[in-house]
Write a structure and sequence with these properties.
The chain has helices at about 100-105, 130-135, 145-160, 175-180, 185-195; strands spanning about 1-25, 35-45, 50-55, 60-65, 70-85, 160, 180, 200-210, 225-235, 240-245, 250, 255-260, 270-275, 280-290. The chain is α+β, with helices and mostly antiparallel strands and about 290 residues long. It is globular, with a radius of gyration of 20 Å. The relative contact order is 0.23. It holds the Pfam family Transglut_core.
Length: about 290
């Protein structure tokens, strides 16, 4: 499937900001046997005074830029064409939960995709007993690691209500868990904490999701937003799988990957600092247009 993507992220300030330095992770990745970035570009207004590119620990291209002069608004636009490949349905050769620690201990690599990076606490995710108890209810001893991951995905989807007004980007997993409401970031964080509490390596995936309008309704341009889902390590034979708890589906041809990390802090689309005071407002719009 070929997609054209358009993303706009805009910020406006009550008082002109200056000395702003930001890091962006917005461009979809090229991943072997998964997706290919055909072409892409990012434009920034005002034009940065400094701009550089680097690759972070998790092998993601990132862009750092600085704006010295006062500016009342910042506008970032990304355009890309991405080819997404269909994924084969993998048979479940993952180990039982009791056998997973032995497989993890046999992994000596500390490469970016090593399961060791995705087992313990991370900057935004710490263990919470309420979520651990919730996870154990899905972890019967006769189930494999993959079966437990699918069971937790379905359970989170069933027990939590999608509500964009209930949480903010800074809401903790435990706060969202107690609310039983939130957005894709909340559901993803809750599922990651739950899986890690069982000893199953799990991480965060940032990307785009093609949304299909109801029958008879036109697709709304710019109505989409960036999406998040979960990456789970299911043993040496299976490796990593990806599940979307917001929709209770495996990540497939409608999911386009931008970045992998331990939690949201590793994949924030735009992060930075600036000198200003007063309030600021942010807008985001995404178009995911299938071409064939």
């Amino acid at each position: 499937m070929l997609y054209d993507l358009t993303l706009r992220m805009g910020y406006s300030y009550d008082v002109p900001a200056s000395g702003a330095r930001h890091i962006m992770r917005l461009m979809p990745l090229s991943l072997a046997n998964r997706q290919r970035l055909v072409a892409g570009s990012i434009t920034i207004s005002p034009t940065p005074d400094e701009q550089s590119h680097f690759v972070d620990f998790f092998d993601h291209p990132a862009t750092s830029f600085m704006l010295r002069a006062p500016h009342e608004a910042l506008d970032i636009r990304m355009q890309a064409r991405v080819q997404v490949e269909s994924q084969p349905i993998a048979a479940d050769f993952s180990p039982l939960l009791a056998d997973l620690p032995e497989e993890i201990s046999g992994i000596w690599s500390l490469a970016p995709d090593s399961p060791h990076h995705f087992l313990g606490d991370s900057p935004r995710l710490t263990q919470a007993r309420e979520i651990s108890d919730y996870a154990r209810s899905c972890a019967r001893p006769e189930l494999t690691a993959m079966q437990i991951a699918h069971a937790l995905c379905a359970r989170v989807n069933k027990d939590f209500t999608y509500d964009p007004e209930a949480t903010t980007v800074d809401t903790t997993p435990l706060e969202a868990f107690r609310l039983k409401r939130g957005v894709c970031q909340d559901f993803t964080h809750i599922m990651i904490v739950a899986l890690r509490s069982l000893g199953i390596p799990a991480g965060y995936v940032s990307g785009f999701l093609r949304t299909i309008p109801p029958p008879g309704k036109e697709r709304l341009e710019g109505a989409d937003a960036m999406h998040a889902w979960v990456r789970i390590w299911c043993g040496e034979t299976i490796g990593w799988i990806e599940l979307d708890p917001t929709n209770n589906i495996p990540a497939g041809m409608d999911h386009i990957v931008v970045a992998y990390g331990r939690d949201y802090s590793d994949v924030v689309p735009v992060i930075g600092v600036l000198k200003s005071y007063g309030g600021q407002r942010a807008v985001q719009s995404v178009d995911v247009i299938p071409l064939k």
